[in-house]
Design a protein that fits this description.
Largest sheet: 5 strands, mixed
Bound molecules: dinuclear copper ion
Distance between the termini: 77 Å
Oligomer: single chain
Number of strands: 10
Structural class: alpha+beta
């Protein structure tokens, strides 16, 4: 079959563009572990702080030894504002908001999800480099939006101590809820 030279150029051009799109998507998804949060779970925002799925807020370890971080966004703070997690370990974040939409972003990492009233967002990621990471709110949520920051402290695995009940931030957050 005879294909005109310009037809050929366009066909190859389209093939190259499609290949670039697919490869860049594959590199982001498999190489850099970027995934859209796809966890659909609803919650009553009025009881977000005390709901057993979100309380106590902070770091916990489940029966299988997996590390979880539960965070509730309120105007204008993350509860808790600070969390310490081990490096090189999958960490599952559970996020929701008690009032308006906030955006939980662990700056400089692939950890990010919206905190939406009525929904629990969830993502799992791991941090290879110990250090302190800024947690920013990246959804405009009101006059104090720019002050809504927190800190994620990633420590080497051997230096990390699983939180005990006495370190649980539950009391602080109950005061806020009350
Ligand atoms: Cu919370 Cu912006």
């Amino acid at each position: 079959m005879k294909v005109d030279i310009y037809e050929r150029v366009w066909m190859w051009g389209v093939a190259v563009v499609l290949a670039v799109f697919f490869i860049s998507t594959a590199v982001a998804a498999y190489g850099r572990q970027f995934h859209p949060p796809s966890h659909i779970e609803t919650i009553d925002p009025r009881t977000a702080l005390t709901d057993p799925r979100m309380a106590p807020q902070g770091v916990s370890v489940d029966a299988d030894g997996r590390v979880h971080v539960r965070v509730v966004g309120v105007t204008f703070a993350w509860l808790p504002a600070e969390a310490t997690v081990p490096a090189g370990t999958p960490i599952t974040f559970h996020l929701t908001a008690a009032d308006v939409v906030h955006g939980y972003q662990i700056v400089g990492t692939n950890g990010q999800a919206m905190a939406i009233p009525g929904y629990i967002s969830q993502f799992t990621t791991q941090f290879m480099t110990p250090g302190e990471y800024l947690i920013a709110c990246n959804e405009y949520c009101g006059v104090g939006h720019h002050m809504m920051a927190g800190k994620l402290i990633v420590v080497p695995q051997e230096d990390w101590e699983p939180p005990t009940a006495s370190q649980s931030p539950a009391l602080e957050t109950e005061e806020v809820a009350g």
